[in-house]
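Narrative of accomplishments. A recurring question from our advisory board has been how the design workflow behaves on a single, concrete structure rather than in aggregate. To address it, we present the structure tokens for one chain from the evaluation set, followed by the sequence designed for it. No filtering or post-editing was applied between the two.
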């Protein structure tokens, strides 16, 4: 239970190892940084859950994924300005006793997400 994320690089067919991710809590137009981390070799937070079940609270959150920086670090030549720079996903936690998994499937040109398990 808790909050987790996972990123897959769909351009190369691999986990997005090394991508920088920032987690925020949000309230209206205000976003407060909770933590930043670089994804591990499996495309996940090296520290495990972003919030465990005891610390996850109902509310609104944002995950910001540094997409263009990641692809540039992989040697992908991107136009300036980049089509996707930072992908931000704003989401809500209604039931803190449930698991919320926020996966990102991303290329330099597209992304998708969903509530995973």
């Amino acid at each position: 239970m808790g909050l987790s994320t996972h990123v897959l690089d769909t351009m190369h067919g691999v986990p997005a190892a090394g991508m920088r991710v920032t987690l925020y809590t949000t309230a209206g137009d205000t976003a407060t940084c909770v933590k930043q981390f670089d994804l591990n070799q499996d495309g996940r937070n090296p520290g495990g859950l972003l919030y465990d079940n005891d610390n996850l609270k109902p509310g609104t959150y944002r995950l910001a994924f540094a997409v263009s920086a990641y692809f540039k670090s992989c040697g992908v030549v991107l136009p300036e300005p980049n089509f996707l720079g930072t992908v931000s996903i704003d989401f809500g936690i209604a039931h803190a006793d449930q698991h919320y998994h926020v996966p990102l499937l991303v290329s330099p040109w597209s992304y998708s997400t969903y509530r995973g398990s």
